[in-house]
Design a protein that fits this description.
Length: 718
């Protein structure tokens, strides 16, 4: 450790900041660390007080729930109680957010949003480069056509089905006059006008020629690409009759490329396992590479070495001959950790770990200055830094983050409100006070988002002692969840987020079930949300179709004009089983389903440091799992134990039974450490703690146990 200005800083982190981050920036190293120390001195104690307040409020809610358990609860009396304990804050006067210098991807381009672990450079690069994705590849490689392909060799019949599907889609995206795309023989540029020669030898044009954004020419100076737009999303039609695909297509179209992942959240939180300075430096170094534009990743695929780098911007020409630039990369946001966890990477003047969120705020911001200084391939054209802040509880905690960002801006000599904030609406105290949370951040708000899984985890933990909760699958139809999803949009629009901030929706968690996603996820733009999370670049390309079909601005305007705001009383309804009687078979199935989900995730987190991965569920369907899914599953079992529906013995038996299942599911993984038959591995002990100590975990979070056990594993396996 390095002693500097009353801080003890991990040597690796200290040298990384000095030798890599601050290089090329007009920031003195000594002044930087002195200011960092001042921020820690000011904000660390406040952070602790806020966490104590969470704990005190939870104790009072537990007492209330115990006293009213099994009784009819008057909602007005309940709200009065929540106001008294400062859980529920009275809404103030109407206001409109004042955010400025917002990039188009936030302000008015509606589309898919990727979330990717920052610790995996290859995944991060893939996500940022997923601004553009092949529609042909997305159809061919998934079950959108009703089946999966044989990946060992190309299937020409399937290829033709892909082309047919894609051209049928173009008929809706960019219709032709008196014809369809499957009738096109050639696409021509004549006198600065796009025309289509048909198989019948007739000619036609677009119904709406305003959709044409521009073109690019090939080496032979022929038309090589036609760029169209709908609802601010671009589509690139690649023309190459020499290509293997293009030469079998009547129009010579070799690919159709959609503008896909409009924005990407580089995640330092739920999808990573960063428990010490080594892990944090890995995360920060990848963020640095992205901000400087020089991040690389080399890997071997099919015995070939492949190097990934960031895409360049795309230059096209308008029909009038002017150059036009299309961004080649997704707009990058960085998700910091919340207020709860501390980090051993830096100790304060009391020799205690500092708040990890404070460290994230300073370091991710100073790294982002490298982008602000760039002249080409900039992430933010408006010189903004976008930080998504998760797991805040109510307006007071949002205000704390805003003040922290203000101090960071002063420390780094940045203009006020350079650092924008994304508020994750995933804790109950934030949901019920969302308007006041937004008010606290009204000058820098750029994002609100619903997170069903974390929000459900907090729903269970908050009312842990109110009774047995309904099953996890039934939660999506609960009264509170409908109000939660609608209120997020209602309040966002009420506060003037339209055109100034994203209103986001949650993740599609089944990356292999793309046909189902195409069928169902259109509900997100229909809800008035201008972005929604997807699990992969391919999913982003397919989800982009929904934003072609739905003009989110029109939906939002209709909500503003016609919809009554979802009710707070509904949001506060507690989803307990009540009179619903479950059979023993149903109870066993539920606890085993949750136990399997916990173990499948935890065993990779503890033993391999993998914070997010596709984990097979109890039915062997691959699900994208992160700490949020672990939180809801563990809290669900804890709740049933606490309220007497099941015993600890039943839960333990389910964990042991599912450990065998998870061991079998991972038998091909050479790095996997079995949990059965001894059930004494660190991972299995972590899973037991999550269940049996779940009622005592702050807000039901999994981080304290996971971090402790991962550090234990790393210590024993140096």
């Amino acid at each position: 450790m390095i002693d500097k200005f009353n801080l003890k800083i991990n040597t690796q982190l200290y040298e990384f900041i000095n030798n890599e981050v601050l290089q090329g920036l007009e920031l003195d190293k000594e002044i930087f660390w002195s200011n960092f120390s001042n921020i820690v001195d000011e904000f660390n104690p406040i952070n602790k007080k806020l966490l104590k307040k969470r704990k005190d409020i939870q104790i009072k809610i537990n007492e209330w729930n115990k006293s009213y358990k099994g009784k009819e609860v008057d909602i007005e009396n309940y709200k009065k109680f929540l106001v008294e304990i400062e859980y529920l804050i009275e809404e103030g006067a109407e206001f409109t957010v004042e955010t400025t210098n917002i990039d188009p991807e936030i302000a008015y381009i509606c589309g898919p949003q990727l979330v990717v672990p920052i610790t995996n450079a290859r995944y991060a690069l893939n996500a940022v480069n997923a601004r553009w994705g092949s529609f042909y590849d997305a159809i061919y490689g998934t079950n959108v056509l009703g089946s999966l392909p044989n990946l060992k060799k190309y299937d020409p019949k399937r290829g033709q089905d892909v082309i047919k599907y894609a051209k049928s889609y173009l008929d809706n995206f960019a219709p032709l006059k008196n014809s369809n795309w499957d009738q096109v023989k050639s696409i021509n540029l004549e006198n600065n006008k796009i025309t289509f020669k048909l198989l019948s030898n007739d000619s036609t044009v677009f119904k709406n020629e305003n959709q044409i954004v521009g073109i690019s020419k090939n080496i032979q100076n022929n038309l090589g690409e036609l760029i169209l737009v709908k609802n601010n999303l671009h589509c690139r039609i690649i023309i190459n009759n020499k290509d293997a695909i293009g030469k079998v297509d009547s129009a010579g179209i070799s690919d159709i490329i959609f503008e896909s992942a409009i924005s990407t959240i580089l995640d330092c939180e739920d999808s990573v396992a960063t428990v010490d300075a080594d892990d944090k430096v890995t995360a920060y170094r990848n963020w640095l590479g992205l901000m400087k534009g020089d991040l690389e990743s080399t890997f071997t695929k099919n015995e070939k070495k492949i190097k990934r780098v960031l895409n360049e911007n795309i230059t096209i020409k308008t029909l009038s001959g002017e150059n036009k630039i299309l961004k080649g990369r997704s707009l990058m946001l960085i998700r910091n950790v919340g207020h709860l966890m501390t980090t051993p990477a830096i100790l304060d003047n009391q020799n205690e770990e500092i708040g990890e969120g404070i460290m994230d705020g300073v370091i991710t911001s100073v790294i982002a200055i490298h982008d602000l200084k760039k002249l080409e391939n900039k992430n933010s054209l408006y010189n903004s830094i976008y930080i998504v802040k998760p797991k805040m509880h109510g307006p007071e905690e949002v205000a704390f983050t805003v003040k922290l960002f203000e101090k960071i801006e002063v420390m780094l000599a940045l203009p006020i409100n350079t650092i924008k904030i994304g508020i994750m609406d995933e804790e109950r105290r934030t949901s019920v006070n969302l308007k006041e949370c937004i008010r606290e951040a009204k000058s820098r708000i750029a994002f609100i988002n619903t997170g069903f899984l974390d929000r459900t985890g907090d729903e269970i933990h908050t009312s842990m002692l109110a009774g047995n909760f309904i099953r996890k699958a039934d939660m999506k139809n609960a009264t509170w969840i409908k109000s939660y999803e609608d209120r997020n949009v209602d309040i966002g629009l009420e506060c003037g987020l339209q055109g100034k901030a994203q209103i986001g929706k949650g993740m599609w968690a089944m990356p292999d079930l793309m046909a189902e996603m195409v069928d169902q996820k259109i509900s997100h733009p229909k809800s008035g949300a201008n972005c929604a999370w997807v699990p992969s670049p391919t999913a982003a390309t397919l989800h982009a179709m929904h934003y072609h079909q739905i003009n989110v601005l029109d939906v939002q305007n209709n909500i503003i004009k016609n919809r009554n705001k979802a009710k707070l009383n509904d949001l506060l309804s507690i989803p307990i089983l009540d009179r619903q009687n479950l059979s023993q078979e149903e109870i066993n199935a539920e606890i085993e389903n949750n136990a399997q989900g916990i173990l499948g995730y935890v065993v990779r987190w503890i033993d391999q440091g993998i914070g997010c991965s596709k984990v097979p569920d109890i039915n062997n369907i691959g699900l994208m799992e992160d700490r949020a899914t672990c939180r809801i599953s563990s809290q669900a079992i804890t709740n049933w134990i606490e309220n007497g529906l099941i015993t600890k013995k039943q839960a333990l038996n389910a964990l042991k039974k599912m450990a065998i299942v998870v061991d079998q599911q991972n038998k091909e993984d050479s790095n996997y450490i079995k949990m059965s038959p001894n059930y004494n591995s660190i991972a299995f002990q972590a899973a037991k703690e999550l269940v049996f100590e779940g009622a005592n975990q702050p807000s039901g979070y999994t981080e304290p146990i996971l971090h402790k056990r991962r550090l234990e594993f790393k210590s024993k396996n140096k």
